[in-house]
């Protein structure tokens, strides 16, 4: 039976984004950055006028104790995923190969291992996992590197690759009550953003996309027509528990990047998200999509305006309907397959007994033969159900 982590309930009240700072080197006295006494802030000293300022954060670590981020900042993300909610981790400022490797090994690899360990221990059956890896180019275009339909991969030169942001997503789906027909589906998603560029507009690597999104949040929406800003906006304002990890160079005395990065990270810390448990019912959702399709078809027939937009929207609804039917159909297919296996086992036992006993009481033999015939018919009926369902699914895909 599938269960969720009852020991880590998800609060459905707004919660501010938690922010952790990673210092790329251990600060010394001459550096512009130092760790506060409580370990939850940065003391910044300007290299121009020696002005001092305290930037409070949830946690500050160096490269030597980066693992300490897990209990305080990252474990709540793992709990969020296993409790059927969404989580997002944003990583900024990792500009050197050494820091990138450290982040990948000590943070990305560890949080993925923890999430998969939690999910596999709690959901014992029918756990559906999907992954995607989006790479965002400086011009705003995006490619899913794990898509089987992608074009042939092209070799990227290092300067371009160093300016590419990326998003690795893992989505989990499982039945809330697997023993019930038409059970609700639990959903959770972990998004791991790796954002390129600097917090200062003068940075040679380009501007971090987080800078532009933070400028648009006070206006209630993002005006960009690119994919990455919309995904970031949703992670910072939508249904998600979000954490930001920012890598800072303590030795940045004369440039604007360090104070800009500290200011940006502190602004993100003031943003509130609301993580809620995500459940949905395939059959109820299917009916809702059907109703929306009928309403949209009526609109298209009676209203000549926005015809192109409505046509695209109709195609999207039909695609969503097919996905919903496929998910429900896959569950029905699994149930039918289990039924066939059970019937075949019963049929084999009856036939083995019939062969082993051979001649005997005529009445018992007739009863056994009748049971064998009924089992054969039941197997044929279940097999036919799967065949018809498969043909319907193939037909719908051909029509689309």
From TrEMBL:
<dbReference type="InterPro" id="IPR036961">
    <property type="entry name" value="Kinesin_motor_dom_sf"/>
</dbReference>
<keyword id="KW-0067">ATP-binding</keyword>
<feature type="domain" description="Kinesin motor">
    <location>
        <begin position="14"/>
        <end position="279"/>
    </location>
</feature>
<dbReference type="GO" id="GO:0003777">
    <property type="term" value="F:microtubule motor activity"/>
</dbReference>
<keyword id="KW-0175">Coiled coil</keyword>
<protein>
    <submittedName>
        <fullName>Kinesin-like protein KIF17 KIF3-related motor protein</fullName>
    </submittedName>
</protein>
<dbReference type="InterPro" id="IPR001752">
    <property type="entry name" value="Kinesin_motor_dom"/>
</dbReference>
<keyword id="KW-0547">Nucleotide-binding</keyword>
<dbReference type="GO" id="GO:0005524">
    <property type="term" value="F:ATP binding"/>
</dbReference>
<dbReference type="GO" id="GO:0007018">
    <property type="term" value="P:microtubule-based movement"/>
</dbReference>
<dbReference type="GO" id="GO:0008017">
    <property type="term" value="F:microtubule binding"/>
</dbReference>
<feature type="coiled-coil region">
    <location>
        <begin position="348"/>
        <end position="392"/>
    </location>
</feature>
<dbReference type="InterPro" id="IPR027417">
    <property type="entry name" value="P-loop_NTPase"/>
</dbReference>
